[in-house]
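Think of the structure tokens as a kind of shorthand, similar to the way a musician reads notation: each symbol stands for something richer, in this case the local conformation of the backbone. In the example below we present two proteins back to back. Begin with the first one, reading the sequence and then the tokens, and try to describe in your own words what changes along the chain.
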Amino acid sequence: MEFEKVVRLRKSVRNFKKKKPSWKDILDAIDCANQGPFAGNNNHLRFLIVEKKKVIEDVADVCEQSWIKQARVLVLVCSDDAHLENLYGERGRVYSRQQAGAAIQTFLLGLANFGIDSCWVGAYSDDLLKEKLNIPQHIQVEAVVPVGFEEGREKKSAKKSLERTLYWEEWGNSKRPTGFEEEKEDYRPGK
């Protein structure tokens, strides 16, 4: 599928069919996420796949979002910041969050490319989730991603227009300088 089409196709789905997606497609989407940029080329991410119905229900309760119970698969994206912090100090935590977010987005796009629906969930009790899934305390849970196929196709909500998200040269300046100014700066007589 073409990249722009995949980006526009991806949406947050909170109503899943009972049909289970292919675990091979899920693994391929995770592998796509593993190809992203990582500080110092240190991939600090781990993916926890949950397929047992009871465990999915427990996670939905911890997230306080009952719709998650409909998902046939959950993927938790987790990170271990220790190595990045050893290499980069406090900045390592920032790099960790940045690359986790990039990887989650790539994972979501990978799922969309395979026709699989998902939703990025960030609301949960870290401690309860770690306790339920036996995740070590030093590991950060970055996202819970319910995975499946949408029950009935809802229209994707409109996103902000490009013009409403851009500033030029300084914060708050929504007008791009004219091309004439750029050419004028680059103009050198006798060139």
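Once you have a description of the first chain, move to the second and do the same.
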Amino acid sequence: MTDIESLEQRIKCLEEECRRLSDIEAIRQLRYKYWRCIHKNQWDELMDCYADDAVVDFGYGLQLEGKMALEDFYKGSMTSTFTLVDPQGHNPEIEILSSTTARGFWQLDNTMVEAQTSKAVRVGTSYNEEYVKRNGEWKISVQKVNHIYRQLVEME
């Protein structure tokens, strides 16, 4: 291998690593947008985070497929049930599988104030997710919510 071939090979490796890191950061930004939209009740913008054919398993027997079902769920249950939702996501583990697929694991601490009772609920969950890159944008294609704890908090 010549010096030029070696240099070209190293440049190609650096370009691939830059793409991988850029994709990881894009997925982080997607997830941060997801939590911001939930916090601010921005349901139309939240739907931009999902692939059209997304499948979400919220646990407790609730599984939804497609953006329409997800939009109905978020606009219906989240808006009427909670006056404040404050999700704090952290500890992402993101693996790029190909140029258009990835998977990730996130942890979440979430405080939600119930509209009717003025009681707060703190929940801990983890998310196992799959992502797909379509038209140059990463979207959530599969989301599985794993419940860890639920704590009721009296508000004063």
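Compare your description with these statements about the second chain. The CA atoms of residues 97 and 123 lie 30 Å apart.
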